[in-house]
Amino acid sequence: MIRIRLKQLLDDKSFKEGRRITLNEVSAQTGIARATINRIANTPGYNTTTDNVEALCRYLDCTPCELIELIGN
Q1: Residue 66: half-sphere exposure toward Cβ, Cα within 13 Å
Q2: CB atoms within 10 A of CB 17
Q3: Full-prediction pTM beyond 0.85?
Q4: Residue 73 above 80 pLDDT?
């Protein structure tokens, strides 16, 4: 299964910047609907588009390999 590490990376970004980052802020900055961001963050195995992955990577200043993780065999 593929896992998207959005929550972990948002926690890291929040810590580095010393402030709380909301999913509403992520939505506004990336152009991804708030409901979609919520599904990406909270639904295991959620299938999203490469456009969303790119937008999140640009916002989080990370690579797709840091955002996406393969779990299991």
Answers
A1: 13
A2: 9
A3: yes
A4: no
